[in-house]
Structure formats: C-alpha cells, structure tokens
C-alpha cells in the first residue's frame, strides 16, 4: 500500500508536558485500561477489576471502587458521578459525592457481558452493547435511568458479532452509533421502539471495529478504527469519505506506529486528531486531514508499555493516559490551543483511488469556506 502522506505541524497544538506519573506496581501484572478526569480526580480502570482514583497534580492514590466481578470494559464521567461497565453483565453508576467505599447508586444488569456503553447528552438514555451469546445473538440494550433498571428496548438483529462500540450523539439525545466485530457501523434513532424503524443507516467498514465516534462542527461525520489498525471516515449517512488503510504505515513516513490508541474531535479547533502508540509507550498526536496526516508532537517518557487509554481537553490544557505498564500519566500544556483560521483551502477527498467531488462539496459550505480540514 502507498505510504500515507504525513507533514509536520508542531505548532498546531500547544506542547503537552509530562507533569506527574503514578508509580507502577513491580510485583503486579496490573494493566491500566481507561484513564479519565472526574469531578474528584483521575479515575483509572484496571485489570484487577477496580476503578482507582488519583489526585491530578501528584497522582497520589485517593481510593478505589470495588464492585465488578469481571473485567471492566469502560468508564465514563458525568457531573458528580462515574459510570462503569463490565464483562460481568452490569453497568454501575457511582455518586462521587459519597465515600468511595459506598455501593453504586444504580446498577443495570444484563445476561450477557457488556462490551461497550454510553449515556445520552441529557442523561435520559443509557445504551449498552453485548458480546455474542450462546444463541449467536448480540444485543443492544436501552434503559431510561429515571424509570427502572429494566431495558425499555432491546435491539438484537442489527449485528451478528460482538458489539464493541456504542457512542451516543453529542447533541441529539435519541441518536446513537454502534460498531461491531462484524464490521458494521449502525446509526439508530432510539425514539423508535421497533428496531427496523430505529435503524437509520448501515455502513460496512470491512473490518472488525474497535473504535468509532462522531466528529465535525455538527457531528455530521463518523470515524471508524479497526482492530487491524485501519482508519476510515464516513458521513453520518453512511457515505465513505476516506479510507487510510493500515495506520501502521505511518512508520514509513517517519512516525513510529504500532497501534491506534483512539481518535478525538476537538470542538475548539474543529479538528479530528489521531493518537497512535508504540509498543515502548510513546504517544504520537496527529491531525487527520482529508487525505493525509499532520504529525504534531510525541508524548514520551510517560509509559514503557502499550498505552490503552488517552483522554484530553484542549480548552483546559490537560491529558491523562493509562498503559499496560500499570502507570497513569498526567500531561499539561501552558497555553490553550488556538482556534483554526476561518478560511481554508477546499480539497477533493480520495476514496479508493477515485476523486469524490461530491464528498468534497459536502464538506464545504455555501461560501466556499471550510471547517479545516473538512
């Protein structure tokens, strides 16, 4: 495959500097999966089925949550609360205003391992994706947390393999996205009780999906990454815009890459960023363009193993990462990122070697001004 075009853009973002790092546990094989910021500090899910909390400035341990009996598959922060999901088939909601030794405030149970979940922007819809059960059925469960612990709907015909990703729409409370090992990327409108009515669009990525999400000023685009380390960009109506193939080919352009950590859309700069990692623990941040990448910076010395999770907030100038070396690292900038120039040159997207002029026009508004780079 042709080398992925990469240019250097070190000034596109402020420099992230390593400010603190939690000490690993030499006698333990504990991994850190997700690491996120909450109202009471950094929360990190670990392979010993705990959620551990740290002070951001020093990463000193504050305590931990113990509830799940199997691997924690995801954690998310909300105002004064934290949500955790597990292969034990449960999603727990924790009130962070209570002592960390307290029981969950709410628990939602399923019969199948929960592999992915998300909460709507207005906190009125909880959606989970399950592993394939013994009847070869992968379920999407929907709850209204205000009503009861029983699902208000179950979708079980849209995917034929494990549902690895659930992402709720950033502004539309009843829309969400699901990604599966079957390679399908499905968009739903949960205001429709019937699954066939709720399913809006289906995109076939051709690879087992390991990550997906909305991006763009109006959340009009979708990124999809696979466990084969490929990256694609789609419209939210299932039109392919760009297929970058294996992102590990970035190594041929001078950016060492062994795997994708994840993608992040930043509304401040109106740009999509890719975080790629090396087996030695380095993190490379890249700006994802219409048909190329811009390498921004490398975050080094924070880890010595595969980085499992990275979250950040450019407006507040922080990032937190967790890795298989058992470490949690806290990164900070000194100045906020600058918003992009309002004017940018429009370019045609290349899809499977063909110029897609209609796709390029969809990414350009009526004044020939473009949300850079889309």
Descriptive report:
With 374 residues, the protein is mostly beta strands. The chain has a single domain (6-344), classed as Methylamine Dehydrogenase, Chain H. Helix content is 3%, strand content 47%. Strands 1-26-25-24-23 form a five-stranded mixed β-sheet, with no helix packed on it. Strands 2-29-28-27 form a four-stranded antiparallel β-sheet, with no helix packed on it. A hairpin with a 6-residue loop joins strand 15 (163-168) and strand 16. The model is unreliable at 339-374 (pLDDT under 50).
Give a quick summary of the entry:
The protein has about 375 residues and is mainly β.
Summarize the SSE layout with pairings.
Elements: E1 6-8, E2 17-21, E3 32-38, E4 41-46, E5 50-54, E6 61-66, E7 72-78, E8 81-86, E9 90-95, E10 106-109, E11 114-119, E12 126-130, E13 140-143, E14 153-155, E15 163-168, E16 175-180, E17 184-189, H1 195-198, E18 199-204, E19 209-215, E20 221-226, E21 230-235, E22 240-246, E23 259-266, E24 271-277, E25 283-288, E26 293-299, E27 307-313, E28 318-323, E29 328-332, E30 349-351, E31 354-356, H2 357-362
Parallel strand pairs: 1-26
Antiparallel strand pairs: 2-29, 3-4, 4-5, 5-6, 7-8, 8-9, 9-10, 11-12, 12-13, 13-14, 15-16, 16-17, 17-18, 19-20, 20-21, 21-22, 23-24, 24-25, 25-26, 27-28, 28-29, 30-31
Which of globular, elongated, flat, extended, rod-shaped describes the shape?
A: globular
The residue fraction in helices comes out at: under 10%
Q: Give the name of the CATH architecture.
A: 7 Propeller
Helix and strand composition category: mainly beta
Q: Tell me the span between the first and last alpha carbons.
A: 24 Å
* Number of distinct helices: 2
Give a count of the beta strands, DSSP E runs of length 2 or more. 31
What kind of assembly state do the chains in view correspond to?
single chain
Number of domains: 1
Mean pLDDT: 88
For the sheet with most strands, the description reads:
5 strands, mixed
Q: So what's the CATH class?
A: Mainly Beta
Using the CA coordinates, give the radius of gyration.
20 Å
Strand proportion, as a percent range, falls in over 45%
Q: Output the strand order for the largest sheet.
A: 1-26-25-24-23
Low-confidence spans: 339-374
Give the CATH topology. Methylamine Dehydrogenase, Chain H
């Amino acid at each position: 495959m042709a080398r992925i075009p990469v240019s250097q853009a070190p000034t596109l973002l402020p420099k992230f500097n390593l400010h603190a790092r939690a000490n690993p546990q030499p006698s333990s094989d504990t991994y850190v999966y997700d690491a996120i910021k909450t109202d009471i500090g950094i929360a990190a899910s670990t392979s010993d089925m705990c959620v551990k909390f740290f002070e951001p400035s020093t990463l000193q341990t504050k305590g931990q949550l113990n509830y799940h009996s199997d691997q924690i598959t995801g954690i998310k922060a909300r105002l004064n609360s934290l949500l955790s999901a597990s292969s034990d088939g449960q999603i727990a909601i924790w009130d962070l205003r209570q002592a960390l030794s307290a029981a969950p405030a709410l628990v939602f149970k399923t019969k199948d391992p929960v592999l992915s979940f998300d909460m709507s922007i207005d906190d009125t819809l909880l959606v989970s994706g399950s592993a394939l059960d013994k009847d070869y059925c992968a379920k999407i469960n929907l709850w209204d947390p205000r009503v009861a612990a029983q699902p208000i709907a179950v979708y079980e015909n849209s995917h034929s393999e494990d549902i690895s990703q659930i992402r709720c729409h950033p502004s539309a409370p009843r829309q969400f996205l699901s990604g599966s090992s079957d390679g399908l990327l499905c968009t739903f409108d949960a205001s429709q009780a019937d699954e066939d009515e709720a399913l809006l669009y289906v995109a076939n990525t051709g690879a087992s999906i390991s990550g997906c999400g909305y991006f763009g000023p109006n959340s009009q685009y979708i990124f999809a990454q696979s466990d084969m380390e490929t990256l694609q960009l789609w419209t939210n109506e299932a039109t392919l815009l760009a297929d970058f193939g294996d992102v590990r080919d970035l190594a041929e352009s001078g950016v060492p890459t062994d795997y994708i950590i994840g993608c992040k859309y930043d509304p401040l700069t109106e740009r999509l960023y890719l975080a790629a990692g090396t087996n030695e623990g380095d993190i490379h941040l890249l700006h994802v363009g219409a048909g190329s990448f811009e390498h921004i910076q490398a975050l080094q010395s924070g880890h010595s193993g595969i980085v499992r999770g990275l979250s950040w907030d450019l407006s507040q100038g922080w990032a937190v990462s967790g890795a298989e070396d058992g470490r949690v690292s806290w990164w900070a900038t000194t100045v906020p990122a600058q918003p992009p120039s309002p004017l940018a040159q429009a370019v045609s997207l290349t899809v499977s070697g063909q110029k897609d002029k209609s796709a390029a026009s969809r990414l350009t508004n009526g004044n020939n001004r473009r949300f850079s780079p889309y």
